[in-house]
């Protein structure tokens, strides 16, 4: 199987795909990956942003509350659609210590949890666009990446420049606090 990402275009609306993109099939060996971000893509973080809008920021409380995030219906539906033809995985800026709560949350939404779940290592505060692209390229060495879905415009831009097919998750209103946490503070 080719190590190159499939596609290379931008998919802006759910269910749309460029004609040049090969439609993956679960019979592929191994099946292609559809990778989803969590915060702002599958989960609604707005209820916990108050922890990091003040000084000092309370990152422990912010991440502790992640298990209570409401689901974002459009993102959940899209992940379930892709699960019919790909293995679904997750590339998130959440720190590794949130893994158990994150897996519980994914299961509670009826999302697959058998695929990769990449989370930030302790003390990895690189911008999301750097950390996530590095992880995506590593995954693409061994697997076909059918699509990547993320809400962070800077992350989407570097994914697109690297040749990956991207769905820009624009179903949750952009938030300056979350953007700063992702790109300036390397926290989510």
Summarize the SSE layout with pairings.
Blueprint: E1 10-11, E2 33-36, H1 59-64, H2 73-83, E3 87-95, H3 99-108, E4 117-120, H4 128-142, E5 145-150, H5 153-161, E6 166-168, H6 176-183
Parallel strand pairs: 1-6, 2-3, 2-5, 3-4, 5-6
Helix pairs in contact: 4-5
Overview of this protein structure:
This protein is an alpha/beta fold and 188 residues long. It has one domain (26-161, 178-183): HAD superfamily/HAD-like (Rossmann fold). 31% of the residues lie in helices and 15% in strands. The chain has six helices and six strands. The longest helix has 15 residues, at 128-142. It starts with 9 loop residues before the first strand and ends in a 5-residue tail after the last helix. Residues 1-23 are annotated as: Disordered. Residues 32-168 form the Polynucleotide kinase PNKP phosphatase domain. InterPro entries: HAD-like_sf (IPR036412), HAD_PNKP (IPR056782), HAD_sf (IPR023214). It comes from Streptomyces smaragdinus.
